[in-house]
Amino acid sequence: APRLVETNKTIFPDRLDRDLHFLNQVGIVSEGLLGELRKSVDILRPNHCWIGFDYTDPVRKNFVLTPQTHMLCAVDVEGLVNEHLIGMGAAKALVRWMNPFKDEFFRLLAMKDAPDVQAYYGFVELCFLAQWMKRAFFERDWKAIRTNYFEGYRRM
User: Fold this and answer.
1) For 113-131, what is each residue's pLDDT tens digit?
2) Which of 30, 47, 50, 85 could form a disulfide with 115 if both were Cys (CB 3.0 to 4.6 A apart)?
3) Is the pTM of this model over 0.70?
4) DSSP assignment string, 7-28
5) How far, in Å, CA of 89 to CA of 115, rounded?
6) CA–CA separation, 49 and 87 (whole Å)
7) Is the pLDDT of residue 30 over 90?
8) From the CA atom positions of the chain, what is the Rg in Å?
């Protein structure tokens, strides 16, 4: 039951700004990069976004390919959350392992009459990256903290 809502009436723009500010305060994102990312967010923030159920843990080990139908099934139901910015799970998969299949993923998603998150994917990806880096800092997962993920959002 996805809902198209006004982005500014959701928590996601403020959460993204807080996460980016946090990453700056702990030294992960420089002051200059923070300023550039905020300008990019202003450009990328959609007027409307899709909210609803999203699968937030799309790591390869959490999927099974059914031999009969060749359908991909998620097996970790704890990763299914409601009232979420739809596409955050896809952003995680695309950043971590699925990027070579990005175009095909969005093409197939469009064929399934799913909410069109590709139209504002940059905003979704920035939301994911900032949240992921913040979590990695708290979990001391230093290998996950790579500011080069933000490079594509400089000087937009």
Assistant:
1) 778 888 899 999 999 999 9
2) 50
3) yes
4) GGGSSHHHHHHHHHHHHHHTTS
5) 13
6) 10
7) yes
8) 16
